[in-house]
Write a structure and sequence with these properties.
The complex is a heterotrimer of chains A (473), B (60) and C (329). Helix content of chain A is 67%, strand content 6%. By secondary structure, chain A is mostly helical. Chain B has 60 residues and is mostly helical. The longest helix of chain B is centred in the N-terminal third of the chain and has 21 residues. The two termini of chain B are 25 Å apart. Classes of the chains: A mainly alpha (473), B mainly alpha (60), C mainly alpha (329).
């Protein structure tokens, strides 16, 4: 069996990076959520906020850990799978990622220990500072890596001499044409992910009639942020669409499902297609009439540009880009509807008593993650066949590593990451089932996070009977 | 929505349509200016709701 | 100013920080395999839990500095050590998630302990494998890797892998002596003694074997014989001291272990310089343009002191003996 190294390298990277992105997306959102909650606790002294903090800290810590170790993989995987890309792009994105490590990774890592384990070792203000530092670290980290990836999408600031890149302007490398739109888009995605996660869990508790105060507060907070965020997200998404239409037209052409250079007028908005890339047409297509012209050309009869505008050997695979985009955009619309509904129900005073709404929220718990994955698949598969758009093709960027090695390590990754996500889900579900502020059924062990299950108000010098928690100094 | 009177149902439908209108505006169907304006009004409206209609049991 | 040289120093600094800091982390993990008492194992993991993440970040710093400043070397070395690096990453992954997962389940904690310990051991071994492979030499043609991914499955890399595992165990034992309760002191002392002895022997064997198979190393001994002999002598003396660890001052073995590693790294630096891919590609051949080097250096110069400051602060927060009942959250 003849295996193609470049396909295997792509699959491996796609797998590891897709898996990875789930966790920083959660971490960025939850870190800021935790900072907000801890602030509210410090300000209002209400125990429910500490309860919320400790509950979500548990899940945050697990996700953060997986994010770190899967992230380390990526920093080496550039070279492992795509050595030619690393050699070429190293001078441009290498320093950006180095600065990410220096200004963000170390910051998060340095203060994470205090955040997770220092509640009784440092005063509340210093602990809050630590939480903020971790939240800021995740934000700064996202900024740098988005710049590096945006540079791959819309390269700028470099000159090329026989295969070697020299950076001529760092300002243009960093602030490349798409960064300033993609960054807020990703940040909003992360914050939306956390908002729907906490709201969804809160809704679930309300449906079960448990942990009323905890649930109402988290649902209230989650939906409050979600409504505002989704409006901003949809706004920035549309702006970003225009930017990408200008700099990577092939991506947006593939995203909409039209083949002809000029679509019919008025153009429908497709929701389901069976694309046939070899014959440059759709075997089947289903869409809402007029909506394509309305949304894509802001008129009632505009024509949309199809993928045939791009030469065949430069076309991305329409199937992947189209469906990834539809998943992301479809979820965005549902999120917007949920946001509007939450505002209306608040106005009517029925936010917690509308069971249909609670069910929707519960189902929407993982929606942010799915939408983010969809968006990233648009970004990465839509950029193909380029790895650095217009400069280096993916197939030319692969490492001189035999296909067998790539395949065996791909299988290893799938197995190992499978264990990680299974454990994460099992434990997260267990934490959610147990609920906030309840002692675990089994006995003690090394403290670490287990003690987070106990609600402990820092101000009162509480001591447990068996003397395990001592008075803070 | 389950036990609402016909008037309340009508109000909910109207609210939903207003929501759709906001969505169309924000994604730029009516141009960039109305897109920004739509976003601003939506966010401000949300903030007003949060302040003027605190959640049940006023636990915030 | 010779930018590639300065970048090489930054790279060496990052690697040294990693070897020292994650060294004792991984060492503690390896020692878990030899600790039968579950409560003691918990205590050992507790001693490294608050600070492991920052420690591990130094390897990303090293890798990314290599990418930014010496992209040719990055693109040669990573495919060359494809298998050990991926195995190391997976092992580090298991170890990292074990921190969080092992406390979630009493039932499976033993299994997560094994994952933690084996992950630490495999990671350490793979790092040593890469080191030995570097000394052995990597086949390079036209600035691309031209060898086989299985070149590392040879005596020198394997011995180096074992040596490094024991070396980390020395650091781990030293850390435990410093941080752990009275109950573990005897275990810590014994670990240091045994590991130091084995480490020294394996290190010696590796050095001799390396001289035998790599002409580049022979010529370095010829030109820098005195310096290398001094370093070897120091190494022997310090490891000798470690094999006699008793109930001495708590911090001494750990500091001696750190010193041991610094000596070893200096020796490697003497041998490898001026190459970045030993005996094939020099620093200057592999370097990126000065604009890239400058940004990394400026960033490193400005930010590293701050990083060191708050990292030290984090260590200070968790100073003293690790609490026996763990970290009350």
């Amino acid at each position: 069996m003849k295996l193609d190294p470049s396909i295997l390298a792509r699959i491996q990277f796609a797998f590891t990076v897709s898996f990875h992105i789930i966790f920083p997306t959660m971490s960025i959102g939850l870190a800021s959520f935790l900072a907000v909650v801890e602030f509210l606790w410090l300000k209002t002294k209400k125990p429910v906020y500490l309860q919320i903090y400790k509950f979500w800290l548990n899940i945050f810590a697990m996700g953060f850990g997986i994010g770190v170790v899967t992230g380390i993989v990526l920093s080496f995987e550039f070279g492992l799978g795509f050595a030619r890309f690393a050699q070429m792009a190293g001078p441009a994105i290498g320093p950006l990622i180095a600065l990410e490590v220096l200004t963000a990774f170390f910051l998060e890592a340095g203060f994470l220990g205090i955040m997770l384990f220092g509640l009784h070792r440092v005063g509340p203000k210093l602990h809050f500072f630590a939480t903020c530092m971790v939240a800021i670290g995740t934000l700064v980290s996202a900024s740098w890596i988005l710049s590096a990836n945006s540079w791959m999408q819309t390269p700028a600031g470099v000159s090329i001499h026989d295969g070697h890149l020299t950076v001529v302007s760092w300002l243009h490398v960093l602030v490349n044409p798409s960064w300033l739109h993609r960054l807020p888009h990703m940040l909003a995605a992360a914050y939306l992910t956390a908002s729907f996660m906490v709201a969804g869990v809160g809704a679930w508790y309300l449906l079960k009639g448990k942990h009323q105060q905890f649930a109402r507060t988290t649902l209230g907070l989650g939906t409050a942020f979600a409504a505002v965020l989704i409006a901003g997200q949809v706004f920035i998404g549309d702006i970003l669409y225009g930017t990408m239409l200008k700099h990577q037209p092939s991506k947006m052409q593939a995203a909409e499902g039209f083949w002809e250079k000029q679509s019919q007028s008025p153009a429908p908005y497709y929701w389901f297609i069976v694309p046939d890339q070899d014959n440059q047409r759709n075997r089947f297509e289903l869409g809402i009439p007029y909506l394509g012209s309305i949304w894509l050309t802001h008129s009632l009869d505009g024509r949309v540009q199809g993928l045939k505008n791009t030469p065949r050997d430069l076309q991305p695979r329409m199937g992947m880009v189209f469906y990834a985009f539809r998943i992301m955009y479809g979820l965005a619309m549902v999120m917007f509807a949920v946001g509007v509904a939450s505002l209306w129900l608040r106005f009517r005073g029925k936010l917690f008593s509308s069971r249909w709404f609670l069910w929707i929220l519960a189902f929407m718990t993982p929606s942010g993650i799915i939408a983010t994955l969809g968006g990233w698949y648009v970004a990465e598969t839509g950029r193909q066949p380029w790895v650095i758009y217009g400069i280096l093709r993916t197939v030319d960027a692969v490492s001189p590593v035999p296909a067998r090695a790539l395949l065996s390590t791909l299988i290893a990754f799938v197995c190992v990451y499978g264990v990680f996500i299974t454990a994460f889900l099992v434990f997260a579900v267990r934490i959610i089932r147990r609920g906030p502020g309840e002692a675990p059924p089994h006995a003690e062990a090394s403290g670490s996070l287990k003690n987070a299950f106990r609600p402990y108000v820092l101000d009162s010098p509480e001591r447990l009977v068996n003397g395990r928690i001592t008075q803070r100094s | 929505m389950r036990n609402g009177s016909p008037l309340q149902r009508l109000e909910s439908i109207a609210a939903a349509l207003v929501g759709v209108l906001f969505f169309f505006a924000i994604v730029g169907v009516f141009g960039l200016r109305l897109s920004i304006a739509g976003l601003a009004v939506f966010v401000l409206g949300a903030l007003v709701v949060y302040v003027a209609f605190p959640i049940e049991d006023a636990e915030s | 100013m010779d930018l590639p040289l300065v970048s090489a120093c930054v790279l060496a600094f990052a690697l040294t920080m990693y070897a020292i800091l994650d060294g004792f982390d991984l060492g503690v993990g390896i020692l878990l395999l030899f600790q039968p008492a579950a409560a003691s194992r918990d205590h050992m993991v507790d001693s490294i839990t608050p600070t492991w993440d920052g420690n591990e970040t130094w390897i990303i710093m090293a890798g990314v500095t290599l990418l930014a400043a010496f992209p040719v070397a990055y693109s040669v070395l990573l495919p060359a050590f494809y298998l050990p690096i991926i195995l190391m990453l997976l092992a580090l992954g298991f170890r990292g998630v074990s921190f969080e997962f092992r406390v979630q389940s009493k039932q499976y904690r033993r299994r997560w302990d094994v994952a933690f310990a084996v992950g630490s051991l495999v990671a350490a071994f793979m790092q040593g494998l890469v080191l030995g492979g570097l000394m052995q030499g990597v086949t390079v043609q036209n600035q691309r890797f031209a060898g086989s991914v299985l070149d590392v499955v040879r005596p020198l890399p394997v011995i180096s892998g074992l040596a490094l595992a024991f070396g980390y165990a020395v650091l781990g034992g030293g850390w435990l002596k410093l941080k752990s309760s009275v109950a573990l002191q005897a275990f810590a002392n014994r670990s240091i003694r045994v590991s130091a002895a084995v480490f020294a022997i394996l290190f010696g064997v590796a050095c001799i074997y390396a001289v035998k198979i790599q002409p580049g190393i022979r010529s370095k001994w010829a030109s820098h014989g005195i310096a290398l002999a001094c370093l070897v002598g120091l190494f022997a003396i310090v490891s000798g001291m470690l094999t006699m660890t008793k109930k001495t001052r708590p911090a001494l073995p750990f500091l001696l272990g750190l010193f041991l590693f610094v000596v070893g790294i200096l020796g490697i630096a003497v041998i490898v310089f001026p190459d970045i891919v030993p005996f094939s590609v020099t620093l200057w051949e592999a370097a990126s343009s000065s604009t890239s080097q400058t940004l990394v250096l400026v960033g490193a110069a400005v930010v590293t002191p701050i990083v060191l400051a708050y990292s030290a602060f984090a260590y200070w927060i968790f100073r003293g003996k690790t609490p026996e009942r763990g970290w009350e959250a």
